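sry for the spam today, last one i promise. struct tokens for design, 142 residues
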């Protein structure tokens, strides 16, 4: 294995053995930082801790009711997607999408059904998720 290290304009190739520590000061950040000294910021949309707790609260209720069984989280360049599955081998029955480009227009949160129909969109995640958290009507014999 090898890694580029050194000062700008004076790149040297350093050989790394399998036992060498990647976190050493000599290697840390040398390959990840651009030459001009600015830190590289990934341009990826993610859910923050508060958003995930709101989503997982609704998800937990549905798992407890036996309706949902699995989920997947995708962080893409333009959106973050929380996909909800009835079974792990199927396609998602719902997707919770966060699209920051729509924040000032229609709201950055979309709830999308398996058919592709947008069930709800808005600026408030909890309000948008309310379309999924409605109680299921059950027949009670008495």
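last one done:
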């Amino acid at each position: 294995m090898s890694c580029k290290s050194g000062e700008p304009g004076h790149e040297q190739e350093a050989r790394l053995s399998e036992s060498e520590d990647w976190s050493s000061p000599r290697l840390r950040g040398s390959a990840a930082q651009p030459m001009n000294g600015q830190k590289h910021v990934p341009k990826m949309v993610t859910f923050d801790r508060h958003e995930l707790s709101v989503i997982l609260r609704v998800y937990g209720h549905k798992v407890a009711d036996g309706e949902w069984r699995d989920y997947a989280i995708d962080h893409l360049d333009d959106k973050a997607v929380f996909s909800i599955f009835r079974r792990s081998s199927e396609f998602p029955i719902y997707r919770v999408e966060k699209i920051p480009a729509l924040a000032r227009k229609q709201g950055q949160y979309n709830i999308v059904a398996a058919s592709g129909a947008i069930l709800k969109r808005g600026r408030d995640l909890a309000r948008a998720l309310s379309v999924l958290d409605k109680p299921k009507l059950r027949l009670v014999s008495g």
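The helical segments are 49-64, 125-129. ok im logging off now
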